[in-house]
């Protein structure tokens, strides 16, 4: 089923609810047959933190689409979408778009000028799997991870021989996506190359609310063209070392869909280059990791506004067994940032020192302690600790029940735009600062052919020195003025049943997010005590999967609650619900092709809805896809 693998289960698989993995001590030799290229699991030092694990199978039916679609339809997370293929920003636990750290193969890829990632230009073809850690992650991952962090990975394997795959996806409104992937691996070397092209005319019909009689019209300005290349290489020169590198180039050319009632014809081009190299050395009781990387972004808006940023990363860390039951990792990271933007030129240097420890006091009890200090251009960001724990208080052959908890501090350094924009930039801004606490209960139950995983988490978060831009005379300027209190509940369910040759699956999640502003800007401001704009208090999602033999079907439902469009909470957008359904057929053994084909209907009931005010979204639409494996 297209579930989220043990969705927010912070614990491992039966019979012990624990994430503590022993280090890959290779000794003299290592069996490399079919082994995956090694990478440290991102959740290893995140005890007590909720985890959404996204597998290759989960992403299958979203090939050719942006990661936006998966997150919006399959998780309790909410994305502020400006339209299909348009700007999409993520909100986690009621925080802002800039309060989520995003990584690709361990490389931070948030824009240093904007402080966030546009998820619409992260096609699923650029990675194989993902992990999403909910809640404060500043101590583990650095700046921006106030609401959580998103980790995208490409995965290579050794000893797989030659492999090739061709995918094509066609659909409504001119959708046509293709990708080709070729790879080859032997005992100590692995290589894979993928190219993709995604296109959509986006000429879907909409009701023009700005005209008398609200006639139905079609968009004439919304075309999206995206193409890219992903190259992965890995090499084991010895049985105790590994060198890997990945490159991702992505180009997007978009006609920005105008607001209802507007006739603008804005255009935006994005060019993104990401490169990372990792070297691991595996000692008898320790592992060294050295990483280098480059992130280069260029955004051109309406031809004349050209904005370029470049980030260079160098890091190194040592992971070792301190003594039985205790593992530790200590490291440093240096970041060099350069910005050439339409309004200013700027540079910034960041230095980070971090330490993480895992304590396995008993088989069913584990703690993680994380510490981090970041310095940017001589300014000290808040010292950032976190402490998390997991305790399995009941365990039997069929069932485990445990609790998890975390206390954490997190932060976000001001963006280049915040500090250097001309006019109005404020170089004296403080880092945004947050404190959070969460408590959850997790159950894993298996009896015969039925399994059930579920979790319930309660969290509180206090964000101080929240940066907002305010009118100051003839221009706007940012200030540390807002304080926000976030409270929420997250429930996740994943169940499976094997019955008379059928595989039945039910997955779902619910998110309650109360994000309340605590500060009035001036005497005329009425935003204190109100929900933040475009932050739904309620969101729910569920999916049913049924498969037998080579055929599988799914029905997906999502419901998004009311969203206020301004800080005074007077006007709002109505809740909406969407239904999707699809069928997939795996070509049987002996068929002249190896692969699968599928059909999908999105927005089955042709619901008219807006995620953001006056931003149109498509009605019922169809997709056909085929994957051929060689």
From TrEMBL:
Keywords: Cell outer membrane, Membrane, Receptor, Signal, TonB box, Transmembrane, Transmembrane beta strand, Transport
Secretion signal span: none
Any one cellular-component term (Gene Ontology): cell outer membrane
RNA-binding among keywords: no
Keyword Transport part of the UniProt annotation: yes
GO MF annotation terms: siderophore uptake transmembrane transporter activity
Domain TonB-dependent receptor plug: from-to ranges: 46-148
Membrane topology: Multi-pass membrane protein
Every TonB-dependent receptor-like beta-barrel domain range: 235-604
Domain of life where this protein originates: Bacteria
Protein location: Cell outer membrane
Primary location class: membrane
Annotated family: Belongs to the TonB-dependent receptor family.
Record's protein name: Iron complex outermembrane receptor protein
Organism: Mongoliibacter ruber
């Amino acid at each position: 089923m297209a579930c989220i693998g043990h969705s927010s289960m912070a614990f491992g698989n039966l019979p012990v609810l624990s994430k503590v993995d022993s280090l890959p001590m290779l000794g003299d030799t290592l069996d490399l047959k079919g082994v995956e290229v090694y990478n440290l699991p991102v959740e290893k030092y995140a005890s007590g933190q909720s985890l959404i694990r996204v597998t290759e199978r989960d992403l299958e039916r979203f090939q050719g689409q942006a990661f936006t679609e998966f997150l919006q339809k399959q998780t309790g997370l909410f994305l502020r979408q400006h339209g299909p293929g348009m700007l999409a920003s993520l909100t986690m636990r009621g925080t802002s778009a800039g309060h989520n750290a995003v990584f690709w193969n361990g490389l931070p890829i948030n824009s240093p000028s904007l402080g966030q990632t546009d998820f619409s230009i992260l096609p699923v073809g650029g990675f194989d799997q993902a992990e999403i850690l909910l809640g404060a992650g500043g101590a583990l991952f650095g700046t921006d991870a106030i609401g959580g962090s998103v980790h995208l990975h490409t995965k290579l394997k050794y000893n797989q021989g030659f492999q090739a795959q061709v995918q094509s996806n066609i659909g409504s409104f001119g959708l046509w996506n293709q990708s080709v992937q070729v790879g080859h691996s032997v005992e100590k070397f692995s290589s894979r190359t993928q190219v993709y092209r995604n296109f959509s005319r986006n000429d879907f019909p909409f009701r023009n609310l700005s005209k008398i009689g609200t006639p139905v019209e079609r968009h004439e300005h919304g075309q999206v063209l995206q193409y890219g290349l992903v190259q992965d290489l890995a090499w084991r020169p010895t049985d105790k070392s590994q060198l890997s590198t990945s490159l991702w180039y992505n180009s997007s050319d978009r006609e920005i869909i105008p607001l209802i009632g507007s006739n603008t014809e804005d255009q935006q081009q994005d060019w993104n280059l990401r490169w990372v190299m990792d070297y691991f050395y595996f000692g008898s009781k320790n592992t060294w990791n050295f990483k280098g990387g480059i992130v280069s972004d260029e955004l051109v808006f309406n031809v004349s506004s050209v904005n370029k940023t470049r980030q260079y990363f160098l890091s190194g860390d040592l992971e070792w067994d301190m003594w039985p039951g205790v593992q530790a990792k200590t490291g440093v990271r240096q970041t060099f940032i350069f910005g050439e933007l339409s309004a200013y030129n700027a540079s910034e240097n960041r230095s980070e020192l971090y330490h993480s420890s895992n304590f396995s006091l008993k088989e069913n009890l584990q703690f993680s302690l994380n510490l981090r200090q970041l310095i940017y251009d001589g300014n000290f960001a808040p010292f950032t600790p976190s402490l998390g724990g997991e305790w399995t208080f009941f365990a039997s052959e069929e069932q485990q029940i445990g609790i998890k908890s975390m206390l954490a501090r997190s932060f976000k350094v001001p963006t280049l735009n915040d500090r250097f924009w001309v006019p109005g930039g404020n170089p004296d801004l403080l880092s945004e600062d947050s404190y959070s606490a969460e408590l959850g209960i997790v159950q894993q139950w298996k009896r015969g052919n039925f399994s059930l995983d579920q979790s319930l988490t309660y969290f509180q978060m206090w964000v101080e020195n929240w940066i907002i831009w305010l009118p100051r005379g003839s221009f706007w300027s940012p200030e540390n003025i807002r304080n926000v209190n976030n409270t929420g509940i997250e429930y996740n369910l994943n169940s499976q049943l094997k019955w008379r040759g059928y595989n039945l699956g039910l997955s779902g999640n619910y998110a309650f997010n109360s994000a309340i502003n605590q500060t009035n800007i001036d005497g005329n401001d009425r935003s204190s005590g109100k929900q933040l704009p475009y932050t739904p208090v309620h969101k729910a999602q569920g999916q049913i999967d049924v498969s037998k033999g080579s055929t599988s079907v799914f029905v997906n439902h999502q419901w998004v609650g009311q969203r206020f469009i301004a800080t005074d909470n007077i006007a709002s957008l109505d809740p909406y619900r969407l239904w999707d359904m699809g069928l997939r057929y795996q070509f049987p053994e002996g068929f002249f092709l190896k692969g699968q084909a599928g059909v999908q209907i999105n927005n089955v009931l042709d619901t008219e809805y807006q995620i953001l005010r006056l931003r149109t979204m498509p009605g019922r639409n169809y997709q056909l896809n085929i994957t051929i494996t060689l």
